[in-house]
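ligand=pyroglutamic acid
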Amino acid sequence: MKTMMGLMAATALGLGAATAANAETWDMPMAYPASNYHTENGTKFAECVTSATDGAVEIVVHPNGSLFAGNDIKRAVQTGQAPIGERLLSAHANENPLFGLDSIPFLATSFDASDKLWAAGIDDIKAALADQNLVYVYSVPWPPQGLYTKKEINSAADLKGIKFRAYNAATARIAELAGMVPVQIEAAELSQALATGVAESFISSGSTGVDSKVWESLDHFYDVQAWLPRNVIFVNKDMFDGLDAAGQKAIMDCGAEAATRGEDTAKSLTAGYLKTLAENGMTVAAPSEQLKTDLEGYGETMTTEWLSSAGDQGKAIIEAYKAN
Ligand code: PCA
């Protein structure tokens, strides 16, 4: 095993090919709990790369923001502090609106639609990541996003003044449009934020609701199905370029398998998460017509806003998506 500086020095000398004789250990920071399907899937991906390279590249997963907090993972990989990592890409939409493509409310609300939208944008997203010294490996969607609250909510008016946990710019914007008070909180800190009253509502999947045992603080889940954001796994470009062709292929092949396996798992778990919320005493319901209409109105506003920030490139992606 060599240190990362060692690898970078070797790369600079043109000796970068990782072989079993000079095996690398790659730390892979992830932001969600070890038991979450994204993390379990990432762990299988790591094992796949380790075995496909005969241990030349051993990837070691660090779950739950333990190595880098969620919000720091992308920068850590860009700068080579970590060779590979996973991040909810839409949390970085402030850097490039393309990173928020998956979080435009009510644009793509099912797994199939999410795949189509992602396919329409993936080339541009890969290029945007490459501009930041990142190589895209794979992504896996979260289940459709719903609304968690303490009290019953029948329309957006009922949301006014509520302290709302946001996880990206889109969720913060919804809070703003509904007159809520947004506070940015990582999933790893969510239970505590709810328990202490720092947040009293949020939008997320059943998956994160179950991970955070939100029934300990909240009572309602509205299955709004507003969008399906994605976790993206990327590699530092210098580290990737420093691998030999076999190492690069192992990462991409294992990534392709992980994308399919992760999404299949997400689909198979979605209904069960809502069942678990209900079994633990939460009221799980469809949103009222009025709440749906109000939220869809925010979706229209935010689609227009996204299109104006993403320019011609954004327009072409949405047109390609709608044409399919
Ligand atoms: N869970 C993540 C992002 C989307 C989701 O379903 C979270 O709440 O942080």
